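Re: the request from the purification team.
They wanted to know what the chain is likely to look like in 3D before they choose a buffer screen. I agreed to run a prediction and write the result into the notebook, where they can find it.
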Amino acid sequence: MLTSLIGFTVVAALLTVSPGPDFAVVLRTALGSGRRAALCAAFGIAAGCFVWGLAGAVGLTAMLAASKAAYDALRIAGALYLVWLGVQALRSARARRGTDGTAPAPDAAAADAPGTAGRPRSRAARGGRSAAAC
């Protein structure tokens, strides 16, 4: 019994400290947009987790577990959203690319990113909520 408990504790500790997708979102935001934007992304992740907790409290998760059609609809909608995010990322990268085929300097790319003027923190928070919701 004691060896099982120790084994479980070790595995649980490793899984707890290993970085996940939310960590990747915050790290990417911190490296690209700074500390404040990363904090907004972290708050967005917390808001997304709150939405999942609220959905569980009102029974939405039980309904998704009981209804295969509802679960499949949500799963397909999530996949389509991820595809849309990928297409947007590719379009943004193509728009930032220089005319000679080389990428611009990182500071210039961050300053010229379409739709980010004056709103990097709200965009970071929205990205964090999206990561937590998926």
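For the purification team: The two ends are 37 Å apart (CA to CA).
Please add any questions underneath this entry.
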